[in-house]
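Ops channel
N.P.: pipeline sanity check, posting one input/output pair.
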């Protein structure tokens, strides 16, 4: 098995039980100075990403978080502050907190307020990367509510027709509870792909589809490294995705007063504080109609779509979040596969905080932490 110092050419994978991987994540974050209860919260967010097959936002993000924490770009033990409280509408100052720590708590506040008022909207300013956008509306769906979460990001995409990075990849998360089927969960970036997928392609040395990015002169390219040479992500669906991204930034940034464009930083790309904004919404379905009636209606809708005619060559039609739910069940049973680059990055971070020694394998790291594969 590879170590942190070995060069790699293969597609080696280490597969780890999801709970053991979560424990390792928590331990490493604690060693990076994150309080234990906060590290536990963050580990669940990252673990959910890996379970759902969104590998770009799980353990693959640990290296970036470690760098931001070490550079002092994130307040390790921040306490959020309520700036405005109108009952069902709040503005919260994240106090430069670790997004995967404070956003789950803020979303739960949104759900609790919606339980009383029927609906709650919360804007968050002065915070950082919060993992997968879908995690937060999924919290609402599990508690019988509709959930929405938007955020702006570091400018990675060009405006439609432009070539300069000015617009974020701006994730959208929306979830609705189902009855006997998987909850509907939309979790996507408004760029053609999330930057994390571009990182994966660069790690693997893969070519990319030509609709992912533009080169530094606005040209077509299949080389992911052209992004680092001054290229930019493309918006999904051309002007439609671009328009959607702009409006998400209105809600998540302009509304709350967060950074826009080059005011938003990133520890890895420019070693600047992020200063992103978040918009979240929870709707208590039971205030509109009985929850069980709604869930039954969702199930009926599911069956209607699944039973509809398929295009040539298509074996199955999927609803939003259905594929990720299937991957979650598989990975809970068989473990989470980490590719060689992510596993090596974790080893490097673990070495830096004294959890393992140079030349040790991922299995050695788990054993040293008393976890084991």
């Amino acid at each position: 098995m590879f170590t942190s110092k070995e060069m790699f050419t293969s597609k080696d994978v280490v597969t780890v039980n999801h709970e053991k991987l979560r424990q390792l994540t928590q331990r490493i974050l604690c060693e990076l100075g994150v309080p234990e209860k906060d590290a536990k919260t963050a580990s669940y967010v990252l673990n959910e990403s890996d379970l759902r097959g969104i590998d770009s936002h799980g353990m693959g993000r640990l290296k970036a978080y470690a760098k931001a924490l070490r550079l002092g770009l994130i307040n390790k033990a921040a306490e959020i502050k309520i700036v405005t409280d109108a009952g069902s509408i709040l503005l919260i100052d994240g106090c430069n907190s670790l997004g995967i720590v404070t956003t789950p708590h803020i979303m739960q506040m949104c759900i609790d307020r919606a339980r009383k008022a029927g609906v709650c909207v919360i804007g968050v300013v002065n915070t950082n990367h919060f993992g997968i956008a879908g995690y937060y509306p999924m919290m609402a769906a599990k508690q019988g509510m509709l959930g929405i979460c938007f955020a702006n990001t570091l400018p990675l995409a060009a405006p439609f027709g432009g070539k300069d990075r000015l617009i974020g990849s701006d994730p959208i998360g929306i979830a609705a509870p189902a009855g006997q089927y998987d909850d509907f969960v939309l979790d996507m970036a408004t760029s053609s792909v999330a930057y994390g997928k571009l990182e994966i392609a660069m790690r693997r040395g893969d070519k990319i589809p030509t609709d992912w990015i533009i080169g530094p002169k606005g040209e077509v390219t299949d080389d992911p490294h052209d992004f680092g040479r001054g290229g930019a992500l493309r918006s999904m669906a051309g002007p439609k995705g671009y328009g959607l991204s702009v409006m998400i930034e209105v809600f998540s940034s302009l509304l709350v007063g967060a950074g826009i464009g080059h005011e938003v930083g990133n520890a890895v790309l420019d070693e600047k504080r992020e200063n992103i904004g978040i918009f979240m919404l929870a709707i208590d379905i039971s205030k509109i109609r009985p929850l069980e009636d709604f869930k039954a209606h969702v199930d009926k809708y599911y069956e209607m779509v699944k039973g509809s005619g398929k295009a040539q060559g298509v074996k199955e039609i999927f609803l939003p979040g259905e594929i990720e739910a299937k991957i979650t069940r598989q990975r809970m049973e068989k473990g989470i596969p980490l590719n060689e680059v992510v596993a090596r990055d974790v080893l490097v971070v673990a070495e830096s905080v004294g959890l393992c020694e140079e030349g040790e394998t991922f299995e050695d790291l788990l054993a040293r932490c008393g976890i084991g594969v």
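N.P.: looks fine end to end. Residues 1-70+335-373 form a domain with the Hypothetical Oxidoreductase Yiak; Chain: A, domain 1 fold (CATH 1.10.1530.10).
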